[in-house]
Amino acid sequence: SCLKIFQKGFQRQKEVQDIPGVQKIRSSNFYKGVSGLFGQFLYLPGETLEEQKKKLEPEIIFSAIQQGEIILTKIHDKEILHRDIKPANLIYNNQKLSIIDFGIAVNFEEHIKDIEKGFFIGSPGFVSQDTSLYRDFYGLGMTLADMLLPSIPADNFSDKYVDSLAKNLTQIYGKLYSNYFEDLVHRKFYPLESFTNNTVYF
Fold first, then answer.
1. What span, in angstroms and rounded, lies between the C-alpha atoms of 192 and 180?
2. Integer Cα distance of 179 and 3 in angstroms
3. What is the Cα–Cα distance from 81 to 108, expressed in whole angstroms?
4. pLDDT at 182
5. Which neighbouring-strand residues pair with 120?
6. Cα 149 vs. chain centroid, distance in angstroms?
7. What is the mean pLDDT of residues 112-125?
8. Rg, Å, the chain Cα set
9. SS3 per-residue string spanning the chain
10. Which of 151 and 125 is assigned the larger pLDDT?
11. Which residues pair with 93 in a beta bridge?
């Protein structure tokens, strides 16, 4: 159920609290009697990247995504996947990026079990049809493209489409941006069999 998914995600967020750039939890207790709220989170000033589209310079966006890569690497070192990396879940303020909303986060073992059951979850446009444990970086790469290019189609996962985004980034911003985008979206390890069923979008 959604309740169990979010409770699990809250627990995984607790496990990465020591990582700079992860939204902090003020209390380990769940809110009681309030549907959909599972913990008291430290307020973060600023706006999400989604809210800052067309406001940030390309080099600022590039730097923010680099910060996101560092944070995600540390999260993955603890064998946790966020599973919903997108502009709306990244807050940028005072030259610092923070990752929020671990509602569907899992550990590596839980992710593998979900895939074995044919269950996949994520946000359209920021999740690939790849079951790799590096799927968070695909979302980060698509966030880079989404911040720099017109809105990306939510249902296009093809390599051809990703290649077209890279070409657009090269033409408008140069190879530095397109190379970084391709590095993020194509980064993989521990690939599992591809899936076709039970995809859940948020």
1. 24
2. 39
3. 7
4. 94
5. 199
6. 18
7. 78
8. 16
9. CHHHHHHHHHHHHHCCCCCCCECCEEECCCCCCCCCCCCEECCCCCEECHHHCCCCCHHHHHHHHHHHHHHHHHHHHCCEECCCCCHHHEEEECCEEEECCCCCCEEHHHHHHHHHCCCEEECCCCCCCCCCCCHHHHHHHHHHHHHHCCCCCCCCCCHHHHHHHHHHHHHHHCHHHHHHHHHHHCCCCCCCCCCCCCEEEC
10. 125
11. 96
For tokens 């390599």, the residue is 159
Quickly tell me which residue has 């940028």 as its tokens: 92
Is residue 112 a contact partner of residue 67, using CB atoms and an 8 Å limit?
no
Given a contact cutoff of 8 angstroms between Cβ atoms, the answer to whether 99 and 22 are in contact is: yes
Tally of residues, the chain:
202
Neighbouring-strand partners of residue 160: none
- Convert the pLDDT of each residue in 7-65 to its tens digit: 788 888 889 999 999 988 765 444 444 344 445 566 677 899 999 998 999 999 999 99
**What single-letter amino acid sits at 34?**
V
Which two structure tokens, joined as six digits, stand for 177? 């941006």
Give 133's pLDDT tier (boundaries 50, 70, 90): confident
Q: Are strands 120-122 and 199-201 parallel, antiparallel or unpaired?
A: parallel
Cβ atoms 40, 31 nearer than 8 A: yes
